[in-house]
Amino acid sequence: MGIIKERMSNLEALRLLCMLMVLNLHSFHGWTNGSGFWQAFDFFRESSSICAVDCFVLISGYFGINWKFKSFYNLVFQIFFYSIAIYVFVSSIGLLEWNNRDFFKCFGCLYNDSWGFVTGYIILYFCAPILNVFANHSSSRELLYYLIVFFIATNFICVSLHSDPAFMFFLLYLLGRLLRKIRIERYTPSIKFWGMAYLIITVIIFVIMYFLLVKVLEITDSDRVCSFPIGFIGYSYTSPLVILQAISLFLIFFTIKF
User: What angle in degrees, to the nearest 10, is found between the helix axes of 36-49 and 9-25?
Assistant: First the structure.
């Protein structure tokens, strides 16, 4: 099975939504600010958007990354441009004091923890040809078995991989390849079904994170709830709830035709 090259307007619309969802994620201050209704609302916003990164990688896996030097160059150029331009801009308007050392750190953005998504995606971009060959030469059942083993290993055995974006992206990318391989359009129910699935999963994540962890167990360490073992049911890219939420959102837009 070759790499899919066509573009689908519905999934392009999902990309745009995911961009907004990522912005929503980075405006979350529920751990430190607010109380009562507004804190709960902040957690609900976070719970509704936590699958955005997963959706990005699912889309990449569904279409398949076709390695091209020009595309890779454009990707890296944009990363460095925004890293450097943003620092220069905020310094020029006085929001940040200029520091030569900090400026040169911008050139190491690919190794910065705050750019974890970008670093993981760059690694995925390089490894995509291998993953494509692996997926193409595996049957749907074999690929599903491999994904289950990969999921268990990432979450329970090699726990250090749980926070590594590259390995998480490998898992999600192969899941996207599986959706393409099984021709998911043959099994897709109505948009109402997937809309309800997305909403129910969002509410479950919200209840777990806000009411159980924050209000009952009084856990307010953001790093703790995003890492193993709590991250397995919470705000982690490889949480089964977040993966199911991402699949539901993906299939909502997949069933839309325009």
Answer: 140
Taking a C-beta distance cutoff of 8 angstroms, is the pair 213, 233 a contact? no
User: What single-letter amino acid sits at 50?
Assistant: I
Q: What is the CA radius of gyration of the chain?
A: 19
Rounded CA-CA distance 73/76 in Å is 5
Peptide bond into 229 cis (omega under 30): yes
Reported pTM: 0.82
DSSP 162: G
The C-alpha atoms of residue 143 and residue 154 are separated, in whole angstroms, by: 16
Per mean pLDDT, which range of 16-30, 101-115, 156-170, 212-226 is the poorest? Answer: 101-115
Helix (H) or strand (E) holding 82: helix 69-92
96 DSSP assignment: S
| Contact criterion met (CB below 8 Å) for 54 and 237 | yes
d(CA 79, CA 171) in angstroms, rounded, equals 24
